[in-house]
Amino acid sequence: MTSTSARELEHPQCGEIRLEAVLHALSDPMRLQIVRYLATLGRDGEAPCSAIDLVVTKSTSTHHFRVLREAGVICQIYQGTAKMNRLRREDLDELFPGLLGTILDADAAQCRRLGDGH
């Protein structure tokens, strides 16, 4: 991982992203909800943590974002006091072609099957 200052967050370089870390990060429903939301924003879309309505405490929310960032699924940067989040879709598609799209498609199918309103 790259070294950072106090206002920069650590992210794995593209070549350091591991499949098992990505799969672990995506295995949690709250983290999948974050990824689902960011995927709707398009390739260059980004959103602050507060834009994603998670029904967990702030500390738990922070944990979920950290797991996604450390796995290489999202990129987080500070803009003022807000942490902006962007899906690392290009990196993931380069390393694991079709994986993210397949997971999002499977998630959407499951939501339809179970009647979840994602």
UniProtKB/TrEMBL annotation:
Gene3D superfamilies linked: Winged helix-like DNA-binding domain superfamily/Winged helix DNA-binding domain
Domain of life, source organism: Bacteria
Pfam families according to UniProt: HTH_20 (PF12840)
UniProt entry keywords in alphabetical sequence: DNA-binding, Transcription, Transcription regulation
Transcription regulation in keyword set: yes
Every HTH arsR-type domain range: 11-107
Name of the molecule in the record: ArsR/SmtB family transcription factor
Organism the protein comes from: Sphaerisporangium rhizosphaerae
